[in-house]
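<goal> How does this chain fold?
<sample>
Here is the protein in question

***
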Amino acid sequence: MSITKHDWTKEEIIAIYNKPMMDLLFEAATIHREHHDPNVVQVSTLVSIKTGGCSEDCGYCPQAARYNTGVEGNSLMSVNQVKEQAIQAKSGGSSRVCMGAAWRNVKDGPEFDQVLEMVRTINKMDMEVCCTLGMITENQAQRLAEAGLYAYNHNLDTSEDYYKEVISTRGFEDRLQTIENVRKTSVTVCSGGIIGMGESIEDRAGMLVALATLNPQPESVPINALVPVEGTPMENEKPVEIWEMIRMVATTRIVMPNTQVRLSAGRMNMSREGQAICFFAGANSIFAGDKLLTTPNSDVNEDMKMFDLLGLKPQKPFTKVVQPQTVEAVDSQFESLGEKPKWTRPNHTIEKNLEASIKGK
């Protein structure tokens, strides 16, 4: 197997992205087969445990409270509700449950304690558990690890240069700090981004540089295609073409050979043929279920039909990393510190975000 390269430059990645399609696909598929079983795909189910009401101004997100998107917020789900969702996910072929909460950052207290109990419950079901809860401190990451968390998702979203055109309420450096805090534990890292937000190819390459130069590289990289939602600042963005998605998947596979590359948001708009090429180019993970947080997703039964058609098999849990041991709350070595970290608030003005906020009122 080839040695993983960690000193990628933007110019090198742009050159890969722009290769003739047949050359790009051949190189990506070759690397994919060197590091992974090409006929196995990891299946995750995303559960929104706390929807809507987020204070951030992410231009792509219908859960931002300042935009009028019709998303109905809800309080944090109960442990039993989440367990029911996990049972359904497991019966549908998922090996991982990813729990998402529309929080800017984790706050110590009863709600976080409840999330920790959700993690314990699902890990005991012999399923991988992932959380995406916003920024977290090192102590919070350690508490999640003790509970049995398998992965923590914290997307970079886009390049550092383009980030300021998408979000004004948090800094790019906070994304990297959260990943660093997770890396101080046994929890694996899931971090990717979104294409189709008006960014350039240079920005797509810049995002991959930021991810590929991490050492170690993320164990999982979701590649999302923007799903424009009415009421958000990006409601009128042009849909991502399938060839853009294929190029992004193939390039990600080449620069991060050991990573699981996940087809995430936007799969509803992809044909089976398009998805098949993405799998050939190195994608080996998907989100299943009828919804990704608030946007539509492919039906799990349709996904299983596609797997049968292509001869694909769902990956079993804990194939890449051994199952974490769950430490009960009473035996935890890490306690709530009541932390109030100073996460950044750049608060520069993004005109389209401001306009959507005013319109939302």
